[in-house]
Specification:
heterodimer, A: six-stranded mixed beta sheet, globular, B: mainly beta, seven-stranded mixed beta sheet
């Protein structure tokens, strides 16, 4: 079995402040890890992914995430947010044996001026 | 390229009615997926397909059927809709199993 836990359901943040969204995963097999963003009334789009190699992954729109195998975490960070970063963010893990994607419950980020 | 498109965008059904949701992709992807999104639960996999003519069950398959007769299309059917199937349904596709999944805009379904 695999599961993804996003530790914060809502994160309010001021514009130009840093933000960190926390994600922990559990799986009995190797996993690949993803962060997706969903803007209001839209589908999901990929922010970044970790398949192998460097544990620090850079994505679109200035986001980055660090894979930590010992802590089974894949936290997402951005050093300075904009109003346009207001969205829901989903962490997801993909099992290496059947390629099924499991999503966390999501974190709603609201950026205020 | 249109990417992944879904038809219809909105639908209201009465309990017991049937309907089919259509997903189409123009990226020549082998893998296609159907998810449902409910508040506080993220997205859950209903069914998926690893190629034309194949289908497999996901996490929450009960009450749904799927078909992949053509590589570019993936249909999701509800034979007898129930209020518990009120949700937003997303289709996605990917080139390979570990590839990026590209999502459609979603279908908002309400079952009364």
């Amino acid at each position: 079995a695999q599961s993804v836990t996003q530790l914060d359901s809502q994160v309010p943040v001021f514009e130009e402040a840093p933000v960190e969204l926390r994600c922990n995963y559990s799986s009995s097999v190797s996993v690949y890890l993803f962060w997706y963003v969903q803007y209001p009334n839209q589908g999901l789009q990929l922010l970044l992914k970790y398949l192998s190699g460097s544990t620090l992954v850079k994505g679109i729109n200035g986001f980055e995430a660090e894979f930590n195998k010992s802590q089974t975490s894949f936290h997402l960070r951005k050093p300075s947010v904009h109003i346009s970063d207001t969205a829901e963010y989903f962490c997801a893990s993909l099992r290496s044996n059947d390629y099924k994607l499991s999503f966390g419950a999501g974190t709603t980020v609201t950026v205020r001026a | 390229n249109a990417g992944v498109t879904q038809t219809p965008k909105f639908r209201v059904l009465k309990t017991g009615q049937s309907m089919t949701l259509l997903c189409a992709q123009d990226m020549n992807h082998e893998y296609m997926y159907w998810y449902r999104q409910d508040p506080g639960m993220g997205l859950r996999l209903i069914h998926y397909s690893v190629g034309e003519g194949t289908t497999a069950k996901g996490e929450v398959p009960d009450g749904y059927n799927v078909s992949r007769l053509k590589k570019q299309n993936f249909l999701l059917g509800l034979e007898s809709a129930a209020p518990s199937q009120t949700s937003v349904y997303f289709c996605a596709s990917s080139y390979e199993g570990i590839g990026t999944q590209y999502f459609g805009p979603g279908t908002r379904l309400t079952v009364l």
